[in-house]
Design goal:
The chain is of the alpha+beta class. Among the domains are: 111 residues; 72 residues. It is 65% helix and 8% strand. The chain contains 13 helices and 4 strands. The protein has a 4-stranded mixed β-sheet with strand order 2-1-3-4, with no helix packed on it. Helix 12 links the parallel strand 1 and strand 2.
């Protein structure tokens, strides 16, 4: 996904974040249910991605389809998704899959000490990939069109008996709705989303000179307080910064170096 669709996904992911604090698996399950509706109706996908249709009209369509059938948060996320522009009809479903998986992953993040919960989830998903990925018999069994959803789900979860509720939900989704790829490949995509989520718990800090123990302790305490969680802080020395500090946590960059301030000043003077 690239271009306008990528930008639209980023917009809706920001909206989704406002619904994740304290959310349980219901939000993810509702979004996956809406995805099934989209995947089963090409006309609906075209209507929701038609650039000539207004956001208001798309919102009314969304309300008529899912209001009262899924949670209010799921409706709001779906409305935001429908209001965006998409390069093609397939992209809106791909984006919704990412949003639903992210909602599920956030449950592990929120319920088990943040990064620790994400590490555990990643391990459980990797276990499924490790068992299924190189076993052609299992791959055929999990992709068998004649097998019932219950049978395929039971087999998949039997392979990873240690899986928690979030891993089980994601594996179940991959087995029952792989959307044109192998279940193990979709679980691998979910692992990549977990890894991206883990970056929110890692602070990469660049400084001009090595920190003393006391400075390092104050830095960690300040960052934990600023971001409201226990971060894993990695510090590197970059003399070229001239002065100041640069911090990145996930996609967020905080740069207070002298070089950056001088560059900003030059731009302001030139403007």
């Amino acid at each position: 996904m690239a271009g306008v669709s990528s930008q639209s996904l980023a917009t809706v992911r920001a909206e989704l974040e406002t619904h994740l604090a304290g959310a349980d698996l219901t939000l993810a399950e509702d979004l996956f249910a809406i995805l099934a509706l989209l995947d089963g109706n090409a006309g609906l996908r075209r209507a929701l991605t038609d650039p000539s249709r207004s956001a208001e009209a798309k919102g009314s369509l969304v309300d008529g389809l899912v209001s009262g059938k899924v949670s209010a948060d799921a409706v709001l996320v779906f409305r935001e998704l429908a209001a965006q522009r998409w390069a093609n009809a397939r992209d809106i479903g791909d984006a919704l899959e990412v949003l639903a998986a992210t909602a599920a992953i956030s449950v592990a993040e929120n319920s088990a000490a943040g990064a620790t919960g994400l590490d555990q989830l990643e391990s459980e998903l990797f276990s499924f990939i490790g068992v299924v990925g190189s076993n052609h018999d299992l791959q055929r069994a999990l992709s068998e069109s004649q097998a019932s959803p219950e049978a395929k789900t039971a087999l998949a979860l039997k392979l990873v008996p240690q899986a928690g509720e979030v891993a089980a939900a994601l594996i179940r989704q991959a087995v029952l709705s792989p959307r044109g790829i192998k279940p193990a490949a979709l679980v691998q995509r979910f692992v990549e989303l977990v890894a991206a989520r883990q970056q929110r718990w890692i602070a990469n800090v660049s400084v001009t000179r090595p920190l003393t123990d006391a400075q390092h302790t104050r830095l960690v305490a300040s960052l934990n307080r600023l971001y409201g969680r226990e971060l894993n802080v990695n510090v590197s020395v970059e003399p070229s910064l001239i002065g100041g500090v640069r911090v990145s946590v996930g996609d967020e960059m905080v740069d207070s170096t002298v070089a950056t301030r001088l560059s900003d000043l030059r731009r302001k003077m030139a403007g």
